Amino acid sequence: MDLQRSRVHARTLVDGDVSQMTFVEPMTPRELLELASLDAVGLLDTVEEAVFTRSFHDAPATVQDEVLRRQAEIANDLSLLPGDEPDPNLRERVLKAVAAAVEREEATLAPLARIGRRRSAAERETGSSFGLTGSGQFWRAASFALAGVSLIMVYFMAVGAQSSRELYLAAINDDIKKLEVLLDPQPAQFLVDASQKVPLSGIAGAVPFKASLYINDTSGEILILHDLPRAKNLEYVLQVVGKDEVTHKLQAFSSSGIFGGITVKDVPLDLIATAVRWQIATLDNVVILTSS
Amino acid sequence: MTQHQDDWLLMDRVARGEEGAVAELYDRFGSLVFKVARQLLPTRAEAEDAVQEVFVRIWQTAARYDHRRAKLVTWVMLIARRHLIDRLRRNAVRGTAASIRADGTSDEGERQPEYKPLEDERNRSLLLRIAELPELQRVVIERAYLQGFTLREVSAQLGAPLGTVKSALSRGLARLRERVRADWAV
Prior knowledge:
heterodimer; A: alpha+beta; Immunoglobulin-like; 8-stranded antiparallel β-sheet; B: mainly alpha; Rna Polymerase Sigma Factor, Chain: A; Arc Repressor Mutant, subunit A; 2 domains; about 70% helix
């Protein structure tokens, strides 16, 4: 196996040689820089790309900056590309193709969630957006809810639940009895007993990560399900803003970079009762996710 | 606001399906995506179809864009290249072992009929420069970079260790860029 051999040989690197660069262990900064070009043109395989990404996040900021710079230079380099220019009408065709894809997605979601109203012809005429006006907003909300469900399912699979398919169906159908049967006791407790389910989203919609809080306001326990990125020295803090606008930090946690769940215990019940907003911030107090 | 933050916000708008955001994205990267499509696909019509598919793919994945992991141009071009390579594989258009001679033509006996190097001054210059590279670098660039074979496939075809293939590609691309840039700087 190449990967096994490379585990042994990965450190036999000689100057300028990437001949042993198949990694299952973190890459050094020099290895990252050597492979930056192959990563930029999509020529690393799945495993290598994952290791590259993990190592990139662990690398010093100066190395990260250099990798980003090199990759952008390669991506933007016209010297290896033909001089042909696209036909001017291609722009219109691209916009129409994306618009059609957006419409198709809405049509696909519609039977799943018959909520919202149809856009009038006038709205469709004047709308500057491809979609997501009128009923589209509801589909988006439905999508978010489904995304939340998928987060839950990943978490439950991770803790050893029995059948992801059955769980998925039970979750999307809000079949609490079925969930009680299928789930391990502890996570089931959160789903079944959670008195609040709070979705968190990016500030100004700019953060491409999500989290949901399942809050039990009688036991003072909170389950955080999230897909926050893993980054060296970057920990997150769950915090709550009370009526007096005072922010209370509840618990710091880190992320493995994949969907995950963290339990927070012994949260004062009065904080839960008087919470105005729930937030996830970085350790340097930048709020990245918040409830509405 | 930094360029990173601008890009992040732009991709958020793209993810929401905002027409203006997709138009802005196309205005920034449409030409670049078309050029790489033109390089990899045999006809202009196929390249134009592929550009549309690439932008749909970008819309589908826009929410996953992480500006800390890659600059937007890198990310867009990565999606473009992956999509184009998938398309090449689907259509079985790629040559099995096309070989470029020093005059920039391809080896008729080894490639599939659909493989036609683009008749373009820049591309001809590129092919000439590729033909001048050391044998291993030349073959690896042709097969992995231009024809969409994975590095593992190239490694198996050549009977060369994967690491050697990677090394050859990395060095070959760097050398190629250096030479082609020098050509066009004159």
